[in-house]
């Protein structure tokens, strides 16, 4: 009921300023919104997730859609950024989705990122961070010993996840990239067999690390 009362204040004009998180952009039809301000948009621009720019672009399109939906009056969208020349902001100014997608495809092709390359993640978690990192480093050494160096496979160092601790478990991951899918699949199959032989289910017998292998991850 409290939420319904708040929405009614927004719709009837009693509330002149609405302050909230990114959840304001999702699933609500606000009336009489003439100005939208996005603060600290750069927080979502630079991260270890190569899809961060497209996520930010999509969110900006979504939040911009909150303004002028019913009134038909001219509206303004103001975005706070320290990098106004970044392609995300340049394309969002004209809502040039096609141009932005073309830019993304070119940059990904140059970097060998999906869909021009292939990725996999080895997820691991344990009660102690040193245990999970030691297990992932051992896994990396094994992968390096069997990887086809001619297939353009890159095995990165283990890193903590964006949410490094959850439910009392320390969480980290190991990223693998390849220019070709076949060699990557062969590598992952060998790794899966190697780990299963040393585990009960998906828990390592010695260090009790819980693990999984994710092909074509959506979030890095």
Description:
The protein is elongated, with a radius of gyration of 23 Å. The chain is built from 6 helices and 9 strands. The chain has about 220 residues and is of the alpha+beta class. The mean pLDDT is about 90.
Labels describing this entry:
single chain; 220 residues; alpha+beta; Alpha-Beta Plaits; 2 domains; five-stranded antiparallel beta sheet; two-stranded parallel ribbon; 6 helices; elongated
Gist of the model:
This protein starts with a helix and ends in a 5-residue tail after the last strand. Strands 3, 4, 5, 6 and 9 form a five-stranded antiparallel sheet that branches. With 220 residues, it is α+β, with helices and mostly antiparallel strands.
**Residue share in helices?**
25-40%
Count of folded domains: 2
Overall form = elongated
Number of strand elements: 9
Gyration radius over CA: 23 Å
Estimate the strand proportion. Answer: 15-25%
Quick check: average pLDDT? 88
Kindly report how far apart the N and C termini lie.
39 Å
Identify low-pLDDT runs.
Answer: none
Element order: H for helix, E for strand: HEHEHHEHEEEHEEE
The structural class is alpha+beta
Major sheet:
5 strands, antiparallel
The count of helical stretches stands at 6
Lay out the secondary structure:
Blueprint: H1 2-11, E1 35-38, H2 52-64, E2 76-79, H3 87-92, H4 97-111, E3 118-126, H5 129-146, E4 153-155, E5 159-166, E6 169-178, H6 181-197, E7 199-200, E8 203-204, E9 210-215
Parallel strand pairs: 1-2
Antiparallel strand pairs: 3-6, 3-9, 4-6, 5-6, 7-8
């Amino acid at each position: 009921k409290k939420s319904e009362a708040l929405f009614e204040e927004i719709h009837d004009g009693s509330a002149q300023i609405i302050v909230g998180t990114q959840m304001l952009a999702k699933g609500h039809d606000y009336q009489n919104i003439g100005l939208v301000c996005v603060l600290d948009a750069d927080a979502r621009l630079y991260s270890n997730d190569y899809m961060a720019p497209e996520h930010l672009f999509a969110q900006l399109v979504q939040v911009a859609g909150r303004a002028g939906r019913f009134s038909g009056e001219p509206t303004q969208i103001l975005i706070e950024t320290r990098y106004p020349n970044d392609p995300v902001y340049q394309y969002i100014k004209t809502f040039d989705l096609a141009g932005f997608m073309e830019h993304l495809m070119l940059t990904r092709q140059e970097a060998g990122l999906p869909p021009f390359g292939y990725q996999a993640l080895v997820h691991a978690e344990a009660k102690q961070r040193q245990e999970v990192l030691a297990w992932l480093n051992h896994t990396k050494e094994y992968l390096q010993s069997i990887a086809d160096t001619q297939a353009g496979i890159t095995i990165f160092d283990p890193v903590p996840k964006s949410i490094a601790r959850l439910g009392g478990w320390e969480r980290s991951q190991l990223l693998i990239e390849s220019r070709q899918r076949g060699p990557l699949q062969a590598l992952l199959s060998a790794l899966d067999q190697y780990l299963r032989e040393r585990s009960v289910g998906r828990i390592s017998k010695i260090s009790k690390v819980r693990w999984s292998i994710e092909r074509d991850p959506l979030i890095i």
